[in-house]
Amino acid sequence: MMGDNLNALTVVFTEFYYWVTIVIMFLIHVGFCLYEVGVSRRRNHLKTLMKNTMAIPLVTVTFYFFGWWIYFAFPNGPGITGGMTAAPWATPWSPLMATHLSGPTPDGGIDAAAAGLWHRLNGVFWGAFLLFSITTASIISGAIIERVRSGAFWLVAVLIGSVMWILDASWGWHPLGWMVKVLGYHDAYASGVVHAIAGGAALAFLIVLGPRLGKFRPDGTPRNILPHNTWMVAIGLLLIYTGFWGFYAACNIPIISPTTIAGQISGATWTATNIYLAPTTLSAITFNFLMSLSGGMMAGYLFSKGDPFWTFSAGLCGIIGASAGNDLYHPIQAMLIGAIVPTIAYKLHNYVERRFKIDDAVGAVAVHGYGGFLGVVIAGIMLWGTPSSPYEGFAVITPWGNLIGAVIMVALGFIPAFILAKILESAGLLRVPAKVELEGLDFDTDQAYEAAFRDITTAERAMVKS
């Protein structure tokens, strides 16, 4: 069903390639857990850990039921270039969303050859996009630690991770997405598609949630609440860097025949492509990933005067800032963009914190939101006039196309997250009570506090309480 031996080998290689990227990307979430626990104070460790960890199964299940279908169903956008697209291989009841290597050809116009291909690749494609989804949700988690109810975060994680981000991916990260076709939107490694939308959602939640108790002095100046464990933060961010190798590789298609791309690529050479099916190589992203990371870390070390937290965070922001165009940038361009973006994001973070009293515990809005937005806008300027796609008739990359696209990405995160946060706030389900926040989320009721001392002697209990 997969054709000749070369095609069969290509399919098997592609299946294994994406499976490996999923394994590597899972390290991003190991890193997020270490990172957030390292930033949080001791009395909040367990709730911080479980709040972020439980996003993994919740987003996984919801992404299976409807997230994957959204990606294929809405590339035409809200009636801009056509109607909803049928995607029978992405519905949860389809035999192609199950563990069959063969079986009946599904309804919906899929022939036997296509069914055989989807049987081999659907699960690993779904898994790679799922890891993007969980990453998008986890970005929000760190910003709101130490005062948010776990259930409130889980709701926004599902909303953004399984609905809104995959909708923006369908619009601007699908080879036939309307933003690519009409705006010439280019965001090869998801500066906007993952990071700007997550940053927008985190900012919306923070506006409604409010700062941690004690974050701001009576005169309004912010206190610097230092990470509890800088080593955990550093190791966590290093693991996120490592996981990002899988993230970048999963944004590529490892090998594809030109005829598969509707004959739009001239010549007979099989090639790797980016998410838009335009030729690229792993060498290109290796150069540019490392150069943008290095630019960010060096800039972060300078502007933070050697502070480990912001040095490592700036490295991540450097990658994110260059990601939109890292399939096409020269390595020196990637390095310079990787240095400039986190410098601007850091200054914006400090300004917004002082001016608007926004308490972003891990700088997620700065690193992902500001960094992702700037990365998309800069790509539109640097790549001006470059084809956005190998398909004929698609718009070229322009500053205004990418600027409009970046605004759309932020809005798709900010608006629904703000509405959800307001609803939760009105129901008393957004923020923990002040007493719980002061005593610590790990001991969030008097009963839990007493249970911790139930089995010790009266003398020991008196000593602990004193």
The H/E string reads HHHHHHHHEEEHHHHHHHH
Uncertain regions spanning at least 5 consecutive residues: 445-449
Number of helices in the DSSP assignment: 16
Report mean pLDDT, rounded to a whole number.
90
Biggest sheet strand order reads 1-2-3
| Shape annotation | globular
CA-atom Rg in angstroms: 23 Å
Question: Layout of helices and strands, plus pairs?
Answer:
Layout: H1 5-39, H2 45-53, H3 55-73, H4 112-143, H5 150-172, H6 178-183, H7 191-209, H8 230-250, E1 253-256, E2 271-273, E3 279-280, H9 282-303, H10 308-323, H11 331-356, H12 364-382, H13 399-426, H14 434-439, H15 446-451, H16 458-465
Antiparallel strand pairs: 1-2, 2-3
Kindly describe this structure.
- Helices cover 63% and strands 2% of the residues.
- A three-stranded antiparallel β-sheet has the order 1-2-3.
- Helix 1 packs antiparallel against helix 2, helix 1 (5-39) packs antiparallel against helix 8 and helix 9 (282-303) crosses helix 11.
- The protein has 16 helices and three strands.
- Mean pLDDT is 90; it is low at 445-449.
- Strand 2 (271-273) and strand 3 (279-280) form a beta hairpin.
- It is mainly alpha-helical and 466 residues long.
- It is globular.
- The protein has a single domain (5-265, 272-431), classed as Ammonium transporter AmtB like domains (Ammonium transporter fold), CATH 1.10.3430.
- It has helices spanning 5-39, 45-53, 55-73, 112-143, 150-172, 178-183, 191-209, 230-250, 282-303, 308-323, 331-356, 364-382, 399-426, 434-439, 446-451, 458-465, and strands spanning 253-256, 271-273, 279-280.
- The N and C termini lie far apart (74 Å).
